[in-house]
Amino acid sequence: MTLFALVHGGAHGGWCWELLVPELEARGHWAVTPDLPLEDPSAGVEAWARTVWNAIDAFQPGAEGRDIVVVGHSLAGLALPVIASMRPVRRLVFLGAMVPVPGRAYADYLADEPGAVIFDGSVRPGDEVGDGPISWRAAREGFYQDCPEPLARAAWRRLRPQSDTVFTERCPIDRWPDVPSTYILMTEDRAVGQEWSRRVARERLAAQLIELPGGHSPFYSRPVELAQVLTSLQ
Fold it and tell me: What domains can be seen in the chain, in order of their start residue?
């Protein structure tokens, strides 16, 4: 059995995996879905990584060295190599995810790579806004365009404020951990650029590249297919 550590992206929470977890469990696997301390400006990716390991240890004490696969969605990709640098894991899975550069601030990297993030979070006249960080239009078009509307609206209402610390801090590792990686690209992703993802998966990660149809949130739009992909990884 594999223990999947499912790490949510920016503005989300562990709740976003609610349809995927039963699919993984039905296939005989386990999952933990920690809530990252997004709102805390003092919490960078090292704090995110510790949060993930705390969740793993709470679920399965002494899990180090066991069959652990860490899946990071979107912004959580910045924490994946830090997680694997702390303790051993079997595989890192970048799910439509950012890929950090050791020793470099991600904001500086994005200035040189404008095709990495293509999400439009701007507020336009007439946009429906709630208590969260982005409008309903931005969430619907950028995150959930292929999800059932009631499900998308429920997710939008739960979105959380996001500190910019992980963008502005220097990536705390100096070298990439020696762990195999998989990059799962969504071919209609409106938040992360597909050409950038393909290039980074090939040139920087030397990763297994898997392409799935659909938008940025396959844990909602196609949880069965996503579970099948994850559980097939060796």
Answer: 3-232 (3.40.50.1820)
